[in-house]
Design a protein that fits this description.
Elements: H1 3-13, E1 16-20, H2 30-41, E2 48-51, H3 56-66, E3 73-76, E4 79-82, H4 84-93, H5 95-101
Parallel strand pairs: 1-2
Antiparallel strand pairs: 1-3, 3-4
Helix pairs in contact: 1-3, 2-4
Length: 104
Amino acid sequence: MDVQKIIHEQVTTHPVVLYMKGSPAMPRCGFSATAVQILQACGAGEVFAVDVLADEGIRQGIKEYANWPTIPQLYIKGEFVGGSDIMREMYESGELKQLIADLA
């Protein structure tokens, strides 16, 4: 299956998807760790996490999918939200917590 189709399927079949380095239990970079902490603080229950270090095709493909050069990348209900800096800003404003709450 084409990498772009795999990514599209992942972001559209799971309400919250985080492309990151490592896993939520063991992030492998500070930005991914921050993204996980922000999602936990927002009360995000089930997060579908994709370790981009495990698949080079996904690692490059996700950058093309969102036209966003960095990882982590957060998707909510199939929509690209942003990376860790945008997540932090949205968390501080309360916007991200509201987006997560609207999923319930």
